[in-house]
Amino acid sequence: MAVRVEDAVPVEATARSAAPPPGRRRSLRSVVEIVLLAVLLVVMLFPVVWMLETSLKEGRDVYAVPAKLLGFDVTFDHYKDVFVQRGGTGASDLAVSFQNSVLVAGLSTIIATVLGVPAAWAYSRFTLKAKRDQLFFILSTRFMPPVVVVIPIFLMYRDLSLIDTKLGLILIYSAFNLPFTIWMMKGFVDEVPSEYEDAAMLDGYSRFEAFHRFTLPLLVPGIAATAVFALIFSWNEFVFAVFLTSSEEARTAPPAIAGLIGGTTIDWGLVAASAMVFAVPVLLFAFLVRKHLVAGVTLGAVRR
Amino acid sequence: MGEISIEGLQKRFPDGTLAVEHLDLAIGEGELFVMLGPSGCGKTTTLRCIAGLERHTAGHIRIGGDLVDDLRPSERDIAMVFQFYALYPHMTARENIAFPLRAEGLRDADVGDRVAEAARMLRLEGLLDRRPGRLSGGEQQRVALARAMVRHPRAFLMDEPLTNLDAELRADMRAELKHLQQRLGTTMVYVTHDQVEAMALGHRIAIMREGRLEQLGTPLEVYDRPATLFCARFIGSPPMNLVDVELTNGALTGPGGLAIEPPAGLVRGVRLVAGLRPEALDVTDPGAEGTVAGRVVSEEMLGDEVIYVIETGGTDLHVRMPPTTHYGSEAPVGIRHAGGPPPVYDPGTEQVVA
Amino acid sequence: MAAPDSTLQPAAPLSAPPAARRFGWLGDRGLAALFISPALGLLLFLSVFPLLWALYLSFTDYSVTRDVPAQWIWFENYVDLLTSDQVHQRAVTTAVYVIGAVGLQTVLGFTIAYLISRRARGRGLMTTLFLTPMMLSPVVVGLFWKFMLDAQFGVVNSFLNTLGLGSVEWLTNQRLALLSVIVVDTWQWTPFIMLIALAGLTAVPRYLYEAAEIDRASEWFRFRRITLPLVWPLLLIAVLFRAIEAFRLFDLVYILTNGGPGVATETLSFHVYKTAFLGFDTGRASAYGILMVIVVIVMAQLYLRYLNRLQGR
């Protein structure tokens, strides 16, 4: 189902890099390329670095004109404000929203995985009626504009009293991550030879047990990678969160952070710090699954 | 024009591995020269140095008398056929063959003529509009050959071109390649790990091992008198029997008391190993004249010959017999050496001593 | 002849533990059904059913605030939308945005991928670094850039001022706002194209280039005749994917400009949101949404069909 890079770029043997052979005279061209690459790298990373600096700056430095690149005093006050209620003790609202994010992302990932892995395995092993169409259909649901889906969901949730609840978000995120989980996991299952299960069944195991005892343990790395991506998607999600929750106790981090820029004065230091705290886990997780990034970001459609 | 000379070639990779260590070769004009050896012996690295795809770290390479050490591959007027054919998957066979000509900017009319000529020689008419994905392995190989030929280079470099083909196809393609090279008369440097291929194709064979030349000679020379134990083991199927022998009273005795005609110049008192070709041994009824006692361990009836493994004096010997012979498994037999003086080796230096 | 070893016994037959037959009675079809139904069920409930409900709503004049039951008004919503100048304007804005952003991302992404593929060392590190913008939430990206492009405190204007070029109203100028959104989206999603282009570039086997070099092909010739044709299919997938995603975009516009100034950066998604949640015209918004869904379905079909053709070849 998924496209392997080798199929899209048809080759017979193992790939070797397209880099030019080493050792030739270092040409002008190489220098130009390196400089260009460096410039682009700076452009790509600068905003992140800048926000990091902003989160560490004193209030007046944040608004300094001209902007201060270096030579400012470092303060962790903003980070403190992210977690602790201003002018008092106890968790800040933002901290609560982060907790909610963790809970919602975590549980929805678990549900999506528990439902998605068996389905992916079934799609991989069995020939089913209109299998390809079913899989395409599943993936299509992921492409729906969230703003559109939110309207009826809002009404549905209102009737089911799921508005402004964490459970409501968990459910929608699970549904939202399911197509990705199935597509991505199916690719992993395709790579585990079905001979393992055949051998087990010849030894007297049922198909279910063959899957459970022999294939599933081999799928653990794939499940981990898929789960991480689902976590990232849920963690970063904004539209459903902002429209289906409103109170502090239910809302997740993205709407809470976005809420910081409403109002007359914006505390950019706090915004920067919250954004950094929010972004770091994702970057860490992304680094962990970097081997599967191509598959992950194309929703499992392209595998390397 | 197409002769290639390699002087003191050395290739050391950046990580320190010495792939080729001081190699000297002189390949004649129009010769089909085979470099044979196991993987890692340096044959492919040498070929790539000749092509210019690798930069050798010491020594010189000349093609047609010109020093090519500092020339890029495109400047050496050579063509290469890769192990995986290296056909451009998104182009038709015709476009693949035409590629080098288009790269040089040749006129369309000339391109058409040359492509047709190459296609004719390799019987590719009718397949020219297919993409490589729709061609069989043998057909892809011929397209790769045509692409190499179409430029009329002064030398062909072949990197194990037949390795990826089915066994029976390989035999056919081998004959075709040999015939093609004879017709074109172009120098060809051929790399392979298959000793049958090497024997069948080469005018001369260079056996390499761990970056060094073990032996250089015609197929017959390499077969009859392998220069080292390594070459003795490498050439011939079934492999040459390498047996411990003793020189006593001017006679050479092998396992089980097997009598072997000694070559001249052997020194007494040293340990020796003799190389006995399977066809130089004879299996007959037990007790026949001149034989020693042996026992059949296995018998392979191949239709055109029978290969026996006979155990005598604690050693297993491969013997090649006519197809009409038949001795059952475990049968007692007599075995004798019927050939002339075999090559004898010093097991310590592994070199031939006589 | 060696005597058979009398101490050798045939091994006891291996047998699976009793629990191994669990669910054996299900059979393959039953098992497939058991494994697939919960997933499909959840999807039907929370993905398909809402869309069907939206379809139903689109034929009514339902409003979420009024307590009056909905009236069936057939295609009135659709006609209104398709003939509305406002909708046309948003459609143009969205088209400009999608074409501009995706185009820019593709060129930049491929360039970066090409530059990285030309380096022999440090690829892993560089790739990871370049991927950073993509992994951030659009909310975070929107906030970062809102601050950076701020007319007063933004670091971008600060740089321009030090260079003597004067401040620019990135987010508050009618004509520049959409450009700013395009630039920010490009910043975030160029790594996506880069990642996939790099995968395609590194998959081209080295010997194809070596063969071309021996055949005296110039660098440009090699790029045009080998690199581009072989990477193009994968690139197309990435571009189609990005186009669909860009079309759906909401988060970035909401955070960065809130559709403004005026309606200069209102994409179709944003307009749907306004119609539904600020205008409370649920029925109309549903019709609007359904129209978008139709476009997305067509685009997704193209994407999936192309994906399939790639696999099938």
Explain this structure to me?
- The complex is a heterotrimer of chains A (about 300), B (about 350) and C (about 325).
- Chain A is an all-alpha fold and about 300 residues long.
- In chain A, about 65% of the residues lie in helices and about 0% in strands.
- Chain A has a domain at about 95-305: MetI-like fold.
- Chain A has helices at about 5-10, 30-55, 60, 75-85, 95-125, 130-140, 145-160, 165-190, 195-200, 205-235, 240-245, 255-260, 270-290, 295, and strands at about 5, 300-304.
- In chain A, helix 8 packs across helix 10.
- Chain A starts with a strand and ends with a strand.
- Chain B has two domains: about 5-235, P-loop containing nucleotide triphosphate hydrolases (Rossmann fold), CATH 3.40.50.300; about 240-345, OB fold (Dihydrolipoamide Acetyltransferase, E2P).
- Chain B has eight helices and 20 strands.
- In chain B, the strands form four sheets. A six-stranded mixed β-sheet of chain B has the order 6-7-8-3-9-10, sandwiched between helices. Chain B has a five-stranded antiparallel β-sheet with strand order 13-12-11-14-20.
- In chain B, a hairpin with a 5-residue loop joins strand 1 (about 5-10) and strand 2.
- Chain B is elongated and about 75 Å long.
- Chain C contains 13 helices and no strands.
- Chain C starts with about 25 loop residues before the first helix and ends with a helix.
- Chains in contact: A-B, A-C, B-C.
- Chains A and C meet through helix 1, helix 2, helix 5, helix 6 and helix 7 of A and helix 1, helix 3, helix 4, helix 5 and helix 6 of C.
Key traits:
heterotrimer, A: 304 residues, mainly alpha, MetI-like fold, two-stranded parallel sheet, 1% strand, C: 313 residues, flat
Summarize the structure.
The complex is a heterotrimer of chains A (304), B (354) and C (313). With 304 residues, chain A is mostly helical.
Layout of SSEs?
The complex is a heterotrimer of chains A (304), B (354) and C (313).
Chain A: E1 3-4, H1 5-8, H2 28-56, H3 59-62, H4 77-83, H5 93-125, H6 131-141, H7 146-159, H8 166-191, H9 195-202, H10 207-236, H11 239-244, H12 253-259, H13 268-288, H14 293-297, E2 302-303
Parallel strand pairs in A: 1-2
Chain B: E1 4-12, E2 18-27, E3 32-36, H1 43-51, E4 58-63, E5 66-67, E6 78-81, H2 93-104, H3 108-121, H4 137-149, E7 155-159, H5 167-184, E8 187-192, H6 195-201, E9 204-209, E10 212-217, H7 219-224, H8 229-234, E11 241-248, E12 251-253, E13 259-260, E14 272-276, E15 281-284, E16 292-301, E17 306-312, E18 315-321, E19 332-337, E20 344-345
Parallel strand pairs in B: 3-8, 3-9, 6-7, 7-8
Antiparallel strand pairs in B: 1-2, 1-4, 4-5, 9-10, 11-12, 11-14, 12-13, 14-20, 15-19, 16-17, 16-19, 17-18
Helix pairs in contact in B: 2-3, 2-4, 3-4
Chain C: H1 27-58, H2 76-83, H3 85-118, H4 123-130, H5 132-135, H6 138-148, H7 155-162, H8 174-203, H9 206-214, H10 219-248, H11 251-256, H12 268-278, H13 282-312
